[in-house]
Amino acid sequence: MATTGEKGRRGRRPALDPADRRRLAARIAKMVLVDRLEQKEILVELQKTEPGLTHIDASTVSRLYRFALDTGIVRVHIDENAPFKPPRIENLERELIAAYELQSAIVADASGHEETLESSLADDRLHQALGQLCADYLDTIVRQNEVVALSSGRAVFYACESLFNRHIFDKRNVRGVKVFSLNGNIAAEVWSMESPDARRAMDADTSGAWLARAFPDAELIRLSLPVAVKSPDMLAEWINEGPGRWISPKVWKEKAASTENIHEDVYVPTLALVGIGGVRPQSGHRFIVGMNEPMMANLQPELSGMNELIEKNANKVSCAVGDLCNRLFVTLEAKRKLSASDYKQLEDYVASINERLLSVTFEQLYLVPKVVVVAGGASKIDAIQSALEWQAMGWKQPIIHDLCTDRETALRLLDFKRNTRRS
């Protein structure tokens, strides 16, 4: 018979160390919730890989799983309004790749395209759907030591958030990732989520924080810069020192031209995830809804004048000005349909605003090996089409390599291409 001083008693299973108990509970929870294993399969796997647990039985597995739920090892988030991830339309993807010489295309079979013009909630839902599919794609292309750069925007934000949610319990085993912003922040919490009263800031620094958390040891570089400065002369000061050096055209150009490891503390991105916006009156574009925010004050009165001119011609052109990484451009549709005087004035406004923006230039994006654009909706078609028609825009080379968009946008882009060829 065992004495009181002996470590164990006959018939009693050895107790688990508290640290081992938490580790084992977490592993069992992962096998239940992620791997979808049955109880018998879990027992076999544990007995095979944990030599000290040959005594474990089904009741112990159940108790450890309940322990994981009760102690916060497993955290459950239920969102009854979570968007349905739409299927992809492969034939449209192939046509887009051929028509615009893209490296890859993702087309969501998502509805609500025209409704996005009237409803901020429908517009947000479309961006969420695009973000989910874009996250699927990012999950396949981000590699070890990737340097990922992000622009502002809802679709970019939702892509980053979706990738984080996918790996909330099991971080992607991709190491050495660096994440940074391509532009300054407006810091206006203006985006609708599940209701008109729910708001969330969606600047690039915010999106970067979500994306970095999807990887085990990712380094997040926050620019913490405003969207614009007071004068063009101040621009160099902001981007040649401190975090601003990460988006300095001078630094990028020197690194691209040199075989030596100059500017060791700055990296040119190997992958950029950016959105394309359509600047329209009464739209959800950040330059419109954030017009009265303190960080936008440096762009007045040109921003107000540009918006008045856009509104004046709203019956002629649905999207006269687009943006890529917070850098504005006049669309091809505006060039075709506006009067010469209005077009010239619009170009002047855009040029005046761009020369004060803390953001990468289009020329800098030429240096990025892969630029993924996620954008869709009725308000952005002219802007997306203009960015794809890089030669007509006078750009030296294509900026967009991969495009994630919705069904209706894809169809209209393809129709435009066919009409252009016929004419």
Provide the descriptors you would attach to this structure in a database record.
423 residues, alpha/beta, Rossmann fold, 2 domains, seven-stranded parallel beta sheet, three-stranded antiparallel beta sheet, 16 helices, 42% helix, globular, disordered N terminus
Walk me through what this model shows:
This protein has 423 residues and is of the alpha/beta class. The protein folds into 2 domains: 18-70; 90-422, 3-Layer(aba) Sandwich (Rossmann fold), CATH 3.40.50. Helix content is 42%, strand content 11%. It is built from 16 helices and 12 strands. It has helices spanning 18-33, 39-49, 58-70, 90-100, 120-141, 154-166, 204-212, 232-239, 249-257, 286-289, 302-312, 332-337, 340-354, 362-365, 381-388, 407-422, and strands spanning 104-108, 147-150, 178-181, 191-192, 199-200, 219-221, 271-274, 276-279, 321-324, 327-330, 370-374, 402-406. A 7-stranded parallel beta sheet has the order 1-12-11-7-2-3-6. A hairpin with a 6-residue loop joins strand 4 and strand 5. Helix 1 packs across helix 3 (58-70) and helix 11 (302-312) runs antiparallel to helix 13. The longest helix has 22 residues, at 120-141. The chain is globular.
Quick one: CATH class of the largest domain? Alpha Beta
How many independent structural domains?
Answer: 2
* Largest sheet data: 7 strands, parallel
Structural class: alpha/beta
Secondary-structure map:
Blueprint: H1 18-33, H2 39-49, H3 58-70, H4 90-100, E1 104-108, H5 120-141, E2 147-150, H6 154-166, E3 178-181, E4 191-192, E5 199-200, H7 204-212, E6 219-221, H8 232-239, H9 249-257, E7 271-274, E8 276-279, H10 286-289, H11 302-312, E9 321-324, E10 327-330, H12 332-337, H13 340-354, H14 362-365, E11 370-374, H15 381-388, E12 402-406, H16 407-422
Parallel strand pairs: 1-12, 2-3, 2-7, 3-6, 7-11, 11-12
Antiparallel strand pairs: 4-5, 8-9, 9-10
